């Protein structure tokens, strides 16, 4: 039974940086980050399938997804943050890779101030 726990959210000024962390209690084959802003649909932000990362267009070049298997942790490094990045961010995992995300964290709030 895999569980995920996000941390690292907070409030920052536009142009600043945050690093989100997600600690997994069990094995996760593929990992990803999603976000949901108020009144908007949840969207995928970054995904890591094996050694192959992918990003949504709006964050490509600014965000970096990585994982530390020894610490069983996935990270989302967010640089050059914009106001429109404000959202609740969730990490997610799949037991097999590729596969559907079926394990989700509780979410962590990221607020970017102008």
Structure write-up:
The mean pLDDT is 94. The strands form 2 sheets. Strands 2, 4, 5, 6, 9, 10 and 11 form a 7-stranded mixed beta sheet that branches. Strands 1-3-8-7 form a 4-stranded antiparallel beta sheet, with no helix packed on it. The termini are far apart. The chain is an all-beta fold and 114 residues long. It is built from no helices and 11 strands.
Summarize this structure as a short list of keywords or feature phrases:
114 residues, four-stranded antiparallel sheet, mainly beta
Task: Give the topology.
Blueprint: E1 4-7, E2 10-13, E3 18-24, E4 30-36, E5 43-49, E6 52-55, E7 63-68, E8 73-78, E9 87-94, E10 103-104, E11 108-113
Parallel strand pairs: 2-11
Antiparallel strand pairs: 1-3, 3-8, 4-5, 4-9, 5-6, 7-8, 9-10, 9-11
Helix fraction, binned, reads under 10%
Radius of gyration: 13 Å
Shape: globular
Mean of residue pLDDT values: 94
Question: In percent, how much strand structure appears in the residues?
Answer: over 45%
Main sheet?
A: 7 strands, mixed
Instruction: Name the poorly predicted regions.
Output: none
Oligomer: single chain
Helix segment tally = 0
Q: How many beta-strand runs? A: 11
Brief summary:
With 114 residues, the protein is mainly β. It is built from no helices and eleven strands. The strands form two sheets. Strands 2, 4, 5, 6, 9, 10 and 11 form a seven-stranded mixed β-sheet that branches. The protein has a four-stranded antiparallel β-sheet with strand order 1-3-8-7, with no helix packed on it.
């Amino acid at each position: 039974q895999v569980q995920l726990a996000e941390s690292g959210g907070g409030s920052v000024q536009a142009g600043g940086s945050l690093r989100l962390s997600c600690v997994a209690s069990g094995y996760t084959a593929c990992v990803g980050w999603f976000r949901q802003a108020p009144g908007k649909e949840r969207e995928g932000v970054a995904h890591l399938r094996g050694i192959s990362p992918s990003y949504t267009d709006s964050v490509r070049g600014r965000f970096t997804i990585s994982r530390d298997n020894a610490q069983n942790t996935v990270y989302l490094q967010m640089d050059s943050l914009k106001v429109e990045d404000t959202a609740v961010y969730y990490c997610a995992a799949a037991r097999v890779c590729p596969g559907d995300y079926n394990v989700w964290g509780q979410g962590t709030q990221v607020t970017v101030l102008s």
